[in-house]
Amino acid sequence: MFKKILIANRGEIACRVIKTARAMGIKTVAVYSDADRNALHVRMADEAVHIGPAPANQSYIVIDKIMDAVRKTGAEAVHPGYGFLSENMNFAAALEKEGVVFIGPPSPAIEAMGDKITSKKLAMEAGVSTVPGYMGVIADADEAVKISGEVGYPVMIKASAGGGGKGMRIAWSESEVKEGFESSRNEAANSFGDDRIFIEKFVTQPRHIEIQVLADKHGNCVYLHERECSIQRRNQKVIEEAPSPFLDAATRKAMGEQACALAQAVGYTSAGTVEFIVDGNRNFYFLEMNTRLQVEHPVTELITGVDLVEQMIRVANGEKLPFAQKDLKINGWAMESRLYAEDPYRGFLPSIGRLTRYRPPVEGPTAGGGIVRNDTGVFEGGEISMFYDPMIAKLCTWGKTRTDAIAEMRLALDTFEVEGIGHNLPFCSAVMDHPRFVSGEITTAFIAEEYPDGFTGVMLDSATLRRVVAAAAAMNRVAEIRRTRISGTMDNHERKIGTEWNVKLQGESHDVTIAADRAGSTVHFADGAEMRVESDWTPGQPLARLTVNGKPLVMKVGKAPSGFRLRLRGADFICHVRTPRQAELAALMLEKSAPDTSKFLLCPMPGLVVKINVAVGDEVQQGQALATVEAMKMENILRAERKGVVKAVNAAAGASLRVDDVIMEFE
C-alpha cells in the first residue's frame, strides 16, 4: 500500500480524502494557493506545499506546479478529487510518465470518456441511447446559432471539459445562444483550461439520474446503484438522494448494466459515474460520464456501506474489488444538501466573507435512529473566497425510509448554524417541506417551476406556527426571569413576571397564558388548546433545542426588540412577545419603509466586473444586458428591469465591487 499520497485539490473533497487516507495509515500532502494558506485541508494534511496565486488557473490547474509538489514531497500517488485536474488526461499522463500512480482511471479512459464530445460519439457507436445534438467543436457564436437552429430549441450549451454546472447554459433563442456561448466558453477556459463547447437538445421535464460504477484492474466492474440529482439550479445540483424514488428494479438493473458495459468498453478502472436523463416513461438516455469521484458520492456510501475513496486507493494499488454485484444491496435511504455560500434572498448570488459562526450538527447516529454526516472544508473564523466554487459543505442524512431520511435532514438543517455570509440553508429546508419534493414527483425543472420568482422565504404552516408560538412564549418567560435578576435596581422597581402574553409572528397574533414549573412550561391558547414546552435554552444561546408536546423543535434564535428573530424550516421572521397592553400600543406604531433604489443598478454580490455593456446616455430596454460580474468562477449577466436612460456609470471592467455598490444610475 502507498505510504504517502498527494491530494491535488482543496476544500471539502481534499478533507474527505485525507480522512480515509488517515484511517488507512497513509500520510497525506496538501497543496494550497495564496487564498488557502490557512484552509482546513492544509491543517489536516501531514504536509502542505504552496503552489501559487489564488486564481485556479495560476495554481490548482497548473500541471507543472502540482508535479513539482509531487517531486518535492516524494508522494507515490495522487488523488485529484473532483473538478480542477481530475478529468485532465494530460495530468494523468504526466503522473504516469513520472512513475507516480494516478488514483483514478488510466489516461486513455479519461480521454475517451472525460471529454464530453468524444464520450457521446463512443456511446453512440456502442449502441447507447444518446440525446440529439452536435458533437463537433464549435468555432464561434455564429456557428453556435446555426447549429442550435438545426438541433431545435431549447438547446444546452456545454463545455466539453465541464462539470459542476460550469460552462453550461440553456438557450431558448438565438440571442441567448450568442450570450450563453461566450459566457460558457469563458467559464470553461477559466475553470478547466479548455474552452471547447458543444451543443445538444435540451430535453424538457427530465430527471437527472446517475449510476455509480467501480472497476478494478482485473476485469471486474460493479454498479453501486443510482443517485437522483434532479433538484438543480443553474445546472448545478443542490439536493441529491439515493436511491431514486422514481426507478423500479428493472430500470435500475438495465441502467447499471449499461453503465458497466460502457466503462468496460473503454478499459475504465477506479470510481466513475455515468449520468443519464430519464423521461416520465423511464426511458433513459446517456448524458455523459464523469471519470472521477462525484461530489454527491456520500449518499451512495450511506446506502451501500462502501467507502469509495478507499476503494479508489485500493484499485490504484492493484487490488481486486472485495465484492461482487450480488453483494451490493440498497440499505435504507440517504439525502444530501449542498451548503453553498450564496444568498437565496438575492437570487442565489455568491456570498463571500468570514464565517463568524460555523457549527454543523453532530455527526453520527441520531435519536431518531438515523445518521448525520457532514463533509466540509471550512471552519469557524475562516474566509470564504471569491476565487473558488461556492460549495462549502455537504450535509447528509440516512434513514430506514425516504420519509425518515427527509425528517432527519429537516432537523439537521435547523441545527446547522452558519453566520457571516449568505447561505442556502433556508432554501434547502424549504425544499424538504415542499409537497412535490416529499411526494418524489420531481424533475430538473423543479426549482424553476416552484420558485419562478426566486426564493423569498417560507410561511410556516398553522400546526408548526402554533408550536413556535408556544416555544417563543416559554423562551420569553426564561428571558424575563433573567431580567428580574439584574443587580443594582431600585427597591421600588421590582420586575414581576406575568402569565399573560401576546405572541405575534408571521402576521398572526396569539394570546396565551403560561403555567410554569421546574421542568418546563404549559402554554394555554385562547381557544382552549395547550402545549407543553421543555428546554434547557438560556438567553444568549443562538440555538434553541426544545420539545413541544414531546416532539423536537430546533430554532436559531437572535435578539429583536420585544422578542426574538427566529429561523427554522426555511422561515426567517421576527417574533414579538409582549404584554397585552404593549401589544395594544404596538398596533398603533407606524412601519418604516425601505429606501427607493429603483434608479440604481446595484452589484448583487461581491465580484469582479467583466464587462460594462452600456454607456452614459444610452436608452436601455427591459431585459437588456447592462453588465457582467464574475464571482466564484461564474459569470452573472445583470439585466435592466425596465426601460430607461443611463445617467451615470460608476464602474469599469476589472473593478472589484462589494455587495450593493452602485454600478450605474438611471434618469
Break the fold down into its secondary structure elements and pairings:
Layout (H helix, E strand, L loop, with lengths): L3 E4 L3 H13 L3 E7 L6 H5 L2 E6 L10 H11 L3 E3 L9 H10 L2 E2 L4 H8 L1 H10 L7 E2 L6 H11 L3 E9 L2 E6 L2 H19 L4 E5 L5 E9 L5 E13 L2 E7 L6 H17 L4 E9 L5 E7 L6 H8 L3 H9 L16 E8 L1 E2 L5 E2 L2 E2 L2 E3 L4 E2 L5 E6 L6 E2 L6 E9 L2 H14 L1 E3 L5 H9 L1 H5 L6 H5 L11 H23 L15 E6 L2 E9 L4 E5 L4 E6 L7 E6 L2 E10 L2 E6 L2 E8 L1 H7 L13 E3 L4 E6 L6 E2 L4 E7 L2 E6 L4 E6 L6 E2 L4 E5 L1
Parallel strand pairs: 1-2, 1-4, 2-3, 4-5
Antiparallel strand pairs: 6-9, 7-8, 7-9, 10-11, 10-13, 11-12, 12-15, 13-14, 15-23, 16-17, 18-22, 19-24, 20-21, 21-23, 25-26, 25-32, 26-27, 27-28, 28-29, 29-30, 30-31, 31-32, 33-40, 34-36, 34-39, 35-38, 36-37, 38-40
Helix pairs in contact: 4-5, 5-6, 7-8, 12-13
Describe the structure using short key phrases.
667 residues; alpha+beta; 9-stranded antiparallel β-sheet; 8-stranded antiparallel barrel; 17 helices; 40 strands
Could you please describe the fold and organization of this structure?
With 667 residues, the protein is α+β, with helices and mostly antiparallel strands. It contains 17 helices and 40 strands. It has a nine-stranded antiparallel β-sheet. The chain has an eight-stranded antiparallel β-barrel with strand order 25-26-27-28-29-30-31-32, surrounded by four helices. It is globular and about 85 Å long. The termini are far apart. The model has no long low-confidence stretch (mean pLDDT 92).
